[in-house]
Amino acid sequence: MRMAPRIFTVADRPELEERLGEVGDPWPEFIHHDEVVNRHWPRLYDEFRDFQLVLYEEDGDTLLGKGCTIPVKWDGRPETLSDGVLNALEAGGDGNVLCALVAVVDPAYQGHGLSGTIIQGMGQIAAAHGLDCLIAPVRPTWKERYPLAPIERYMRWTRADGLPFDPWIRVHHRLGAELLGVARRALDIRGSVAEWEEWTGMAFPESGDYVVPGALVPVQIDRERDEGRYVEPNVWMRHAV
Predict the structure, then answer these.
(1) Is the pTM of this model over 0.85?
(2) Does residue 165 carry a pLDDT above 90?
(3) Residue 3: its pLDDT value, please?
(4) Rounded distance between C-alpha atoms, residue 20 and residue 135, angstroms
(5) What are the C-alpha distances in Å from 219 to residues 64, 71, 212, 232?
(6) How are beta strands 227-240 and 62-72 bridged, if at all?
(7) Alpha-carbon distance 128 to 146, whole Å?
(8) Angle CA 81–83–84, to nearest 5
(9) Radius of gyration of the chain from Cα atoms?
């Protein structure tokens, strides 16, 4: 009988850190080009190793997923939440709550409830460090199918059974999370028109807003300035710990 996958931190199992690249990449290419994220991400593994997670199956010696978090300061009022991941990375490191940054399951192992295991692991780490709660700027899985729908409305769509329409919001809801509001600038990705054409495999013949595969909202192309910009909204949710 195989053992269930377990959550470890990279501080617990430092030998697994060098294997994190084994977890398959589920993101569209443009997601990897946020300058703030790329500048601050190494700091997570240099300074906050106790808060970076690995989902590992001992029997198969397999890395199934990973998660990244950082402590931040928050007074508990929805109206004072930051804009999202970028603010958490820039201002985080010392705080009273734990902020999720990303939770990834290798695409080969998706569909088995493992993403929920990573979120639960984040909550356990928050509790172990005496933090008040876990907050997460959730990237809605199906929002890319509805890029023209305002996030304020989309995040409150429900199915016939009353559960949240979006699968990732639904995972958090089933784990007891409370919907708080919109993280309006979770990512802010800028590049030249040529870079955006390379990242997306699309052509942008004129200035305007373009629906791009994998993007939650349209990408803004300005050919006169030779710039494309994508400002991604997420959804803030809170987990008790």
Answers:
(1) yes
(2) yes
(3) 62
(4) 24
(5) 32, 31, 7, 9
(6) unpaired
(7) 38
(8) 95
(9) 18
